[in-house]
Each structure stands twice: as structure tokens, then as C-alpha cells.
Amino acid sequence: MSPRKSVAETRLTRRRIVDRGLEIASMEGLEGLTIGRLAADLGMSKAGVIGHFGTKETLQLAVVDEAADVFTREVPERVHDVPAGLARLRAMCEAWVAYLERHVLPGGCFFTAAATEFDDRGGPVRDAIAGMSAVWQRDLRIQARLAVHGGELPADTDVGQLVYDLVGVMLALNHFLQLQGDPAAPQRARRSLRRLLGE
Amino acid sequence: MSPRKSVAETRLTRRRIVDRGLEIASMEGLEGLTIGRLAADLGMSKAGVIGHFGTKETLQLAVVDEAADVFTREVPERVHDVPAGLARLRAMCEAWVAYLERHVLPGGCFFTAAATEFDDRGGPVRDAIAGMSAVWQRDLRIQARLAVHGGELPADTDVGQLVYDLVGVMLALNHFLQLQGDPAAPQRARRSLRRLLGE
DNA sequence: GAATATAGCAACCGATCGTTCGGAAGCTAA
DNA sequence: TTAGCTTCCGAACGATCGGTTGCTATATTC
Q: Which of A63, A90, B181, B190 has the maximal Cβ count within 10 Å?
């Protein structure tokens, strides 16, 4: 029925699958992401969808990768030119808030949803999620440490504690935005960040 | 085949279903809670399981109710005799941390998982989850307000902001415990609580 | 003791799950 | 032109999903 597409078109089809898959997964979860649903949404057959990945788990991993790309594009890359240290740390957090505020993905923060969905299981998908979460927290820790060493944050700052609190602020932001639809949540998040990182 | 049980036995069967259902749901999610899986775990037929509820949604609501009962028993009821105001607010939060620390449910905080799973959908299950979350946050606000009026917290305290931060601390605790298995998380949570609520 | 009500089972329903298979269609290299 | 490669489809696979039906065996009610 459907002919072979040019290489460019093929890559485009794969991208369409992963992009739409990320949207679905951000709303329904990575398990709620169904091959049949994906096929129906894209107007193609289930075989055509799964043929690009071979396995649902591979598809899930591709979606996790895409989510990481989106996050990277929307948050860390936007603050790459901000001076390292406290300024960069503040910019990272502000970009993080803005990213959730803008509802880049319809289902809120993909990693929050995926983390709570997979935190009790094993397997490569869980490992990928935990790994990317760890990388981002490491980046936060690095900038926090630079800020401490540069005297921009108190010398006795517990960097791990600070990152813990920052993560809490963002988890709360996602929670109040998605579950309660609270429009004051971003402002609350920014106020908490000011308290943690100074003015 | 299986005979009718006495009323007491019948209630017990229902409790067994809901209890096991809560364990499964805390790990696999409310949608991952499957009637067939439940029946297999309990050594009974699917019809025997669903006969007590009629519908999976009703079963899910029963599980949500049970989760609320467990939480109520484990957290607010344990601090019922603590004097109202800041002392009670602190005790509520400490009981909350201890509840997560003890791993009362194998999958961590049920409401955190259920909230992120259902925050994008509609329906009675989502409403029940959001409602119970709202009740608990209202209880926190009440005690916080009492603490402010009693002069135990600064007069300019933004109570909504405080509850936002408290929720963030607990979400982070659940996150670091479940996804990263960080044993230092409870101590981090307690330190954050001290920062928010004083010594 | 007889009548009634009901908990639970075995079997089954249609739908959907992830996955496999053979083939049709078209691009590309020889 | 031809042979091979690849994308995608239609169809089907067994498994499982939520839910229904008919029945049996017993607890309760009279």
C-alpha cells in the first residue's frame, strides 16, 4: 500500500511518531502510550508504527530521549550564556519555572509523571528516567557549588540540601498547576526560589 | 461452587480486595490495578472480585477511600492530642515524613502517584483524589493560620505560600526516596521543615 | 424445615493489547 | 532494466482487558 519514502521522509515519519508519542505520554503516561492509539492518531497502521522501533520498550526509550531533548532545548540551552555560579543557577531555575508555566507539553512535566510511574519498577526505561533526572540535578549541584566557592552563597551552604529544596519547589509547581489548576503557583514557585537563592 | 459467606466473612473478603488493591495501586498505579491481577493475587475469580463493586471505577474509588483512611490513621490521627497551632503543624509534618519513611505502602505515597496519574483527566476518581488532597492542605492551612494568629509564626506569613512549600518538601521526599532510593532524604525533609517552621 | 437471598465460580463476551508475517509499493544501486 | 532494500499495510496471533451470565452452595429468614 504505502510506498517507501525517501530517507528524509522516513526520518520525518519517525519524528512524527516520537513527537506525538511524547504528547500522549505526557498526558496518559508511558504505559498509557499505546501503539494502536498512536497509529490511529497518525493515520497509519500499528505495524507501520512499531516497525520503526521493533518493540514498545524501544519506543518508550525514544520518547524519553525526546523528552530530554525538549527539556534541554527549553531550559539549560536558554541559559548557556549566563555567567556560571549563582546567576546561572537562578537562570536555570527561572527557565525551569517558565518551562512549566508555558505548558510546553500538555501533560505538564514529563519527567515528573514518568518518574512517579516507573519509580517502583526496574528495567531500562526506569534507568533512563532516573539517569536524566540525575544529570539535571548534577548540573544544579555544580552551579550551586560554584556559587558557594565564589562567595555568592553562604560558605556553610549544604549543596545537596539546596538541590533537594529546589526539586521540591518544582514538584510542587507541577502539582499545583496540573492537579489544582492554581494560576498563582508560578508566582509561589518564584517566591520560594528567591527565598532559597536570594534576591 | 463457592458458597455464600457469613456477613462478617463477606466484609472481610471486601477488605482483602481493597487492601491488596491499595498495595498494587501504590506500586503500579490505579490503572495498572487490574481485576484479573487482583483475582489471581487473592486466589479468586474475576467475577468474585468485581461482584463486590460492579465496576472498576467503583473499585478504584474504594481504593482511594482506603488510601485516605490509611493516611488519616497514620498521620492526622496520631497528632490529634497535640495542641493546636504551630506545635500541631509541626507534628503533622513530622508524622507525614515518618509515614513516608516507614514505607507504609510499598509504592510510596499513594496520593502523589495517583495525583500525577490522573491530573490530566476528568471523572470521579480524579475528583476524589483532588478533594482529599485539598482537605489535607486545608488542615495544614488551618493550623498555620492559628500559629500566625497566636504569634508563633511571623505576622506577615503568607499561609498559602507556606503550604505550597510544605507540599514541595513532601513531594521531594517521595521523589528522592522512590526514584533515587536516597536514604538521606528524610533527614533533608526534616531540615527543610525546620527552616520553614522554626526549631 | 422450607424459602429466599447472595458470594463466588466457570465460562464466555467483544475490545484491545503488543507483536508477527507476507506482500505491495517505490527508492536506489548495479 | 533489474535486483535488492526498505517502508508501510492488512491481517492475524495469543494474551489480557473490563464486564456478563448461569449456576451452585450456603447463610439467613420465615
A: A63
Classified as helix, coil or strand, B40 is: helix
d(CA A75, CA A127): 22
The band of B5, judged by pLDDT with boundaries at 50, 70 and 90, is low
Q: Which residues contact B121 (CB under 8 A, 6 or more apart)?
A: none
Quote the CA–CA distance of A57 and A128 in Å, as a whole number: 11
**How far apart are alpha carbons B32 and B34 in whole angstroms?**
6
* Angstrom distances, CA of residue A124 to CA of A17, A58, A130, B50: 20, 9, 10, 34
What is the pLDDT of chain B when averaged over all its residues? 96
Separation between Cα atoms, residue B168 and residue B140, nearest integer Å: 13
Closest CA to B125 of B113, B136, B137: B113
- How sure is the predictor about B199, in pLDDT bands with cuts at 50, 70 and 90? confident
Chain B CA closest to residue A178: B119
pLDDT tens profile B77-112: 999 999 999 999 999 999 999 999 999 999 999 999
Instruction: Compute CA distances A127 → A25, A54, A61, A114, A134, whole Å.
Output: 17, 20, 10, 11, 10
Collect all residues of chain B within an 8 Å Cβ-Cβ radius of residue A27: 120
Retrieve residue A30's grid coordinates. 508511558
Compute the distance between CA of residue A62 and CA of residue A22 in angstroms, rounded to an integer.
Answer: 9
C-alpha pair distances (Å), B99 with each of A71, B104, B118: 33, 6, 23
Query: How confident is the model over A102-123, as pLDDT tens digits?
Result: 999 999 999 999 999 999 999 9
